[in-house]
Design a protein that fits this description.
With 355 residues, the chain is α+β, with helices and mostly antiparallel strands. The chain has two domains: 2-285, Beta Polymerase, domain 2 (2-Layer Sandwich); 293-352, Methane Monooxygenase Hydroxylase, Chain G, domain 1. The protein has helices at residues 2-19, 52-57, 75-84, 89-96, 152-158, 170-205, 209-240, 252-314, 330-352; strands at 23-25, 33-39, 44-48, 64-70, 103-106, 111-121, 125-136, 139-144. Strands 1-3-2-4-8-7-6-5 form an eight-stranded mixed sheet, sandwiched between helices. Helix 1 runs parallel beside helix 5 (152-158), helix 6 (170-205) runs antiparallel to helix 7 (209-240) and helix 8 packs antiparallel against helix 9 (330-352). The longest helix has 63 residues, at 252-314. The radius of gyration is 35 Å and the shape is rod-shaped.
Length: 355
């Protein structure tokens, strides 16, 4: 999915380049993708992979500047950006630390927000990406752990003349980016829901060890998803209640809407987690039922052969005087007698509905 997102991302950028006359293009050094989109209600400009020194000069106060960095390997590039915007060194450490849980921190001149972006790969495996945002006056910085994202449609909307994004501040852009990420959580959870249904169907027909392994994978994924989604609720709550005025009052309702979505995600996550536990119980019950059926069959077979073995054992004794041994039809009589016992026991078991 990362590769597909990267292709969509480049396609969106190419579309912007074709329609904008004011643009510059160069290849970034030392890896990573550096991108700048500046806009206001009347104009839009995009700069893709230009030197960081040139890019920073393109940021002007009368336009909203969105700087996006894909890949955190170019530390020199990140340091130059952080120095230009006077970012706190603790904030930069949080940007570089990809193991951080979602959180929001307020600084004197900017708001820091970090969370995880989710990708569904091959309909099964979930890939996680660390992404951080720095919101300031008339600018927004986004630091992505990997190349490729899910913001292609958002870039295209910025290019539209009547887009509401062009009429709002950088805080509204932050909302749209976070909302896109949260919406992607729904598709991931829906995919997990389909996986649970598929596993349930397999278990009810024939449970295998592979189903058990798949259930264990799901349980581990839910543990990590809880670590991703639950702190996001507190982070958004902190953004909504910020006292530094980073979020305009007219835009607070949008962040509250995302907060409500996260609450719904948490409820869905708890539901799916319970379903996974139920799935494990179903798997164990199915295995136990199959084992009981096998044990029942073996018990019936053993019970039937106990009297037959007894008769065979009696006539297998080496006594000298056993009258039945001299009967002309004794052998056939014993076989018929054993057959009648076999049929009688089968009939009795059927009557008792033991099988």
């Amino acid at each position: 999915m990362g590769g597909n997102n990267k292709a969509k991302r480049k396609s969106a950028l190419k579309h912007l380049h074709e329609q904008l006359t004011d643009h510059t293009h160069a290849t970034s050094k030392n890896g990573g993708i550096l991108e700048l989109i500046t806009y206001n209600e009347n104009t839009v400009s995009v700069y893709d992979n230009i030197p960081v020194e040139v890019l920073l000069k393109k940021c002007v106060n009368d336009q909203i500047s969105w700087i996006n960095i894909d890949g955190l390997t170019n530390e020199e590039q990140i340091q130059k950006i952080s120095k230009h915007f006077d970012l706190h060194y603790l904030l930069v450490e949080d940007v570089m630390n990809t193991h951080h849980q979602p959180k929001a921190d307020e600084y004197e001149d900017h708001l820091f927000f970090t969370l995880k972006m989710l990708y569904q790969i091959d309909g099964q495996r979930i890939d996680y990406e660390h992404i951080s945002f720095v919101l300031g006056k008339n600018y927004l910085l986004s630091f992505q752990e990997k190349e490729g994202d899910i913001f292609g449609n958002l870039r295209n909307r910025i290019n539209q003349d009547n887009s509401i994004i062009r009429k709002r501040g950088a805080d509204y852009l932050l909302y749209r980016l976070i909302d896109s990420i949260v919406d992607s959580y729904y598709s991931v959870l829906d995919s997990i829901g389909h996986r649970i249904e598929e596993i349930e169907d397999k278990i009810t027909t024939q449970a295998t060890e592979l189903d058990f392994i798949e259930i264990q994978k799901l349980r581990k994924e839910f543990i990590y998803l809880r670590k991703v989604v639950y702190p996001l609720r507190e982070a958004l709550n902190k953004v909504i209640k910020n006292e530094e005025g980073f979020i305009e009052e007219r835009n607070e309702k949008y962040f509250s809407d995302v907060y409500d979505h996260v609450i719904h995600l948490i409820d869905s996550l708890d539901t799916y987690k319970d379903l996974t536990s139920t799935l494990m119980d179903l798997y164990m019950n199915t295995i136990n039922y199959r084992m009981n059926e096998v044990m029942k069959l073996l018990t019936v077979i053993t019970t039937i052969f106990i009297p037959l073995s007894f008769i065979a054992g009696v006539y297998g004794m080496n006594f000298e005087h056993m009258p039945e041994l001299t009967w002309p039809n004794g052998y056939y009589g014993v076989l018929v007698f054993m057959g009648l016992i076999f049929l009688a026991m089968i009939g009795y078991f059927k009557y008792k509905k033991w099988f």
